[in-house]
Amino acid sequence: MAVCRRVPPLLLLLMSIVLYVHPIRGQKLPNNAIVKSVVSVDVPAQNQGGVAAGINGPVVVALPPRKRTSGWKLAEEGACRDDLTRLCPKHSWNNNLAVLECLQDKKEETEIAADCNHLLWNYKLNLTTDPKFESVAVEVCKTTINDIKECATEERGKGYLVSCLVDHRSNITEYQCNQYITKMTSIVFSDYRLICGFMDKCHDDINTLHCGSISTGEKDVHSQGEVIACLEKGLVREAEEQPGAHAIRDECKKAIMRVAELSSDDFHLDRYLYFSCREDRERFCENTAAGEGRVYKCLFNHKFEEAMSERCREALTTRQKLIAQDYKVSYSLAKACKADLRKYRCSMDTNMPRAREARLSYLLLCLESAVHRGRTVVGECQGEMLDYRRMLMEDFSLSPEIVLHCRGEIEAHCSGLHRKGRTLHCLMRVGRGDMAAIDSLCQKALQTLIQEADPGADYRIDRALNEACESVIQTACKHIRNGDPMILSCLMEHLYTEKMVEDCEHRLLELQYFIARDWKLDPILYKKCQGDASRLCHTHGWNETSELMPPGAIFSCLYRHAYRTEEQGRRLSRDCKVEVQRILHQRALDVKLDPELQTHCMTDLGKWCSEKTESGQELECLQDHLEDLVAQCRDVVGNLTELESEDIQIETLLMRACEPVIQSHCHEVADNQIDTGDLMECLVQNKHQKEMNDKCAVGVTHFQLVQIKDFRFSYKFKMACKEDVLKLCPNIKKKVDVVICLSTTVRNDTLQDTKEQRVSVKCRKQLRVEELEMSEDIRLEPELYDSCKQDIGRLCQNVAFGNAQVIECLKENKRQLTQRCHHRMFKLQEVEMMDPELDYQLMRVCKQMIRRFCTEADAKNMLQCLKQNKNSELMDPKCKQMITKRQITQNTDYRLNPVLKKSCKADIPKFCQSILNKATGDSELEGQVVSCLKLKYADQRLSPDCEDQIRVILQESALDYRLDPQLQVHCTDEISRLCPEEAAAQEQTGQVEECLKFNLLKIKVEGCKKEVLNILKESKADIFVDPVLHTACALDIKHHCAAIPPGRGRQMSCLMEALQDKRVRLQPECKKRLQDRIDMWSYAAKVAPAEGFSDLAMQVMTSPSKNYILAMIGMGVCVLFLFGLLCGRITKRVMQEQKDR
Q: Which residues span the membrane (predicted)?
């Protein structure tokens, strides 16, 4: 039994190198000597008990005693004659080996008679134990033995030489020697009992697992394939820790694996698989030559075809599971990668048990690590790796960890989806959280399998993804080389686009979920960033992990360094930053592609965002509820939002929606490698361009709304003002509060004329940008929006947000606002009037007019400039209308007219204090102070500066009654009744006021009558405040009153004197209008007599007939004086006469 003691090395090396040779059919070949030598082996005579006296002991057979000659042939034996005639071609009968192969390779074992089976087995046993076996080897392999030193030194006559030749078969170059060893191998593997040592090592396990019997008679002698298959299945069950699995002894495990290894090159040698797949081989692999594992690979590739028999599929799966446990069970893989395994020391890890190093996963990880590090791995080996990586992705059952740890998930959610990687993708979907919670061990097993298969390097490895996305790849990614890692990035770029199909979308997101959790699984990212990751994040090799820096944390480390400034320290290389940005763009498409976000925000997603299922909505939802999130989730969302503020291109969906406006208005900043917030600022500035679509506008506005939650979310503002915020506004976080704080500081410094502004120049500049942006949408000012939300729903429900339309709507409905909203709106208008540039609607509507008339005007005097040019023929009607609205607003309250407020600073408390005393602090004065000042203007008691401003107001309100708030309040109904046509015309020529003057007697409302009388009184003070009269008398003023300065009623007195002077001929229209005014003033004097001596004196002094009145008064005084003197003398004489009596 010397040869049996040397079986272990024999078996190990047989597996690696066996080649299949087609049956020799008796033709005259160069190896005839081999055949003759082998077939000349005698079959020993039988003893009476029917036991053949073999070299290695008794073997039970049932042969008739007969003496064999050296020319003995199997074809001549009666036991096999019928089967031979029926099953084997006649030309093969003279070749015992050809007959042996023909008979033993039949599909059904029952086709051959039992006696013939025994005869064949006895013949093979004698072949393997006969010393002639070695002598033939010496003759045929003479040159090879001399070349292989190990075999040349082997002791002859004990069977060691053949064992050595098998061990070194890969080095055999002689054709005949190679054929001989191959033929003998096929004989050995036709029955496990002929493999010396196998029976001894696995005896107990065979019985325990009920795999069959080693005794002839209990089991058919050709059932040895079933026995080995049974043991292999038992080994697989043990690896998967299936219920009831039997622990096979280590020495039997080694024997099973070596048998599988020995049969790795020729599927004929795996008897169970051979008989299970013979028809499938003919169906799928008819033209595939046997040898070097080619038939195995062909069958593996067709494993999930519908036409594949279930028995063959099961046998193939068992073999694949053995390959997963020991890569050497795959002849082609072991051969192709042998040199690279040695080169990269993939079997030299002394810290790992030997069994681990033999696993397919370890080999793949080791060699993939070399590839990712840029090392050379031969193409043949890479091809084999690709095949087996695809195999792992196709069939989850080849991974024992998946079977063991994901059993519950498979049964609950993924049963019946076994083929073509569908079960694995179903498990991925469960892992994403799309279906149910997943066990952590199952999640880990999935992550490990994805790393082993590494589908990120070549999408074709994932068959389910490949099939689902084939049409998308052909249309959207056809410019990329097939198998290139950029295919996955291309697919991600087209996620949620018209070119994407639903099935591809699901498969892609399922795979990307796991790739996103290990930065190494994106080969492009790893290639560009491995140096930076090692330098900045202390990473190790591709297939090594660190508890201090797990794979999921490395990408976070990279993107933190990607957006650092030079002052902040070490930064990423440009190539690495580009890849980091690419990954961030992809992650923005789905919240589950960001591991940190999903880990810390799962509870909040369920609480606040369960109904937000559209792409990109979940992150927007989290940002909307930022204040409500738990601390860890709030930090993660905050950091991501802060990152987006610097590089908004991370928001891929927003960039797609905004593509038209970017191309038209922002292409220059979009092309910059470094964004620093410029692109978002450009989008905000162009939010109302015609190229802006609804999706883009909504996205930009949402980002603006998010920014107001924290000033850090506005990158440019943060960088410009962070030092000012720390110094002037500490402990303030909300951006809107920071803006208010800084704006108030700037305004106070300006009003107090401080020599040095406390807010830096760069911050003031950016602060102006932020203030202008906030003025565009009421939602960007939370306090105002919250105060007016009820009013918006009631008064402006059909008005769209943005473009300051809602703010304008509230202004137009100011009288109907709730007190709280009215107060906030008044404060807003006060700020806008002080700084018209913050009046978004005014600046938008009058943009072109500002360029035309006010290019040199200061920003704070913009409205004043527009008012001065309002009546220009070149003025745009829409702008003119907007200016009028602002004038109406200013006249309602002197506080909304900064110029008037400053000019009349002393006059207002002097003449209108009673009005101020009655008003509350937050109420609007409805034009009462302005009306008060108008009356004092008529009395000529105002200071010069204030008088100038009131004159302007009077002139403007005389042309447009809407600019007189008190007239609006009291005369609305009367105007509708008496002057509907003039009001409808909306011509700012003073026709409504003129109508009211003419219909003064018809006015019923006392308040309105009083206001019209005030207008008449004011018009006496200056002809310029009576536009109708001024227009009618313009030529007469030029001819007769040109030397008289305007104001204080001087030109009006001049015209009255000219009217009374018969020598002066006035224009008929002027004369008529003057006579009308005299009548109106006379009536006014009757209706509204002087309220006191001062009022009477003022009326006389301001009357056009002042001289006449004064003369008459003087004359009356003189008459009275003379009368007094006369009466006094008479009285004195009478008194004297009485005394004298």
A: 1108-1131
- Give me the pLDDT at residue 1080, please: 83
The CA distance from 426 to 418, in Å, is 10
- How far apart (Å, rounded) are the C-alpha atoms in residues 888 and 900? 14
Which two structure tokens, joined as six digits, stand for 348?
Answer: 């030299």
Residue holding tokens 């082996």? 41
Alpha helices in 495-594 (DSSP H): 502-515, 523-536, 551-562, 574-587
Q: What is the mean pLDDT of the chain?
A: 80
Question: Percentage of the chain surpassing pLDDT 90?
Answer: 24
CB 83 within 8 A of CB 111: yes
Q: Is the C-alpha dihedral spanning 58, 59, 62, 63 positive or negative?
A: negative
Q: What tokens does 1074 get?
A: 């003057």
Degrees, nearest 5: CA angle 959-960-962 = 160
User: What is the pLDDT at residue 133?
Assistant: 67
Dist CA 426 CA 511 (whole Å): 11
Q: Which two tokens stand for residue 836?
A: 């018209």
Q: How far is CA 805 from the centre of its chain?
A: 31
Distances (CA, A) of 575 to 524, 525, 838: 10, 9, 42
| 87/74 Cα distance (integer angstroms) | 14
* Distance (Å, whole) CA 482 – CA 473: 9
Q: Is residue 805 very low, low, confident or very high in pLDDT (cuts 50, 70, 90)?
A: very high
Write the pLDDT tens digit of every residue in 215-274: 333 344 445 677 788 888 888 888 888 888 888 988 888 888 888 887 888 887 787 888
pLDDT digit string, tens, across residues 685-711: 888 888 898 889 889 988 998 988 898
Q: Are 127 and 87 in contact (CB under 8 A)?
A: no
C-beta of residue 370 within 8 angstroms of C-beta of residue 344: yes
- Provide the 8-state DSSP code for 614: S
Tell me which DSSP letter residue 109 carries: G
DSSP state of 158: S
Backbone φ and ψ for 542, nearest 5 degrees, come out as: -60, -40
Residue 242 burial (C-beta neighbours within 10 Å; 0-12, 13-18, 19+): middle
Tokens of 570: 């070490």
Site of tokens 């009211």: 996
Confidence class for position 57, pLDDT limits 50, 70, 90 = very low
Q: What is the mean pLDDT of residues 619-640?
A: 90
45 phi/psi in degrees, rounded to 5: -70, 155
Q: Name the nearest CA neighbour of 564 among 638, 633, 647.
A: 647
Burial bucket for residue 126 (CB in 10 Å: 0-12, 13-18, 19+) = buried
Specify whether the backbone of 496 is left (phi greater than 0), alpha (psi in -120 to 50) or beta.
Answer: left
Rounded CA-CA distance 448/404 in Å is 14
- What are the tokens at 395? 């069939």
pLDDT in tens, 331-348: 899 989 989 998 988 865
3-state SS of 968-1029? HHHHHHHHHHHCHHHHHHCCCCCHHHHHHHHCHHHCCCHHHHHHHHHHHHHHHHCHHHCHHH
End-to-end Cα separation, the chain, in angstroms? 194
Q: Give dist(CA 832, CA 778) in Å, integer.
A: 14
| Residue 476 to residue 496: CA distance in whole angstroms | 13
Pairing of strands 51-54, 57-60: antiparallel
Phi, psi at 195, each rounded to 5°: -85, 105
Identify any residues that bridge with 59 across adjacent strands, giving them in sequence order: 52
Using CA atoms, how far apart are residues 653 and 955, in angstroms rounded to an integer?
Answer: 55
- Pairwise CA distance, residues 648 & 677, whole Å: 7
Confidence of residue 55 (pLDDT cuts 50, 70, 90): very low
| pLDDT for residue 751 | 77
Number of Cβ within 10 Å of residue 891's Cβ equals 25
Query: The pTM is what?
Result: 0.68
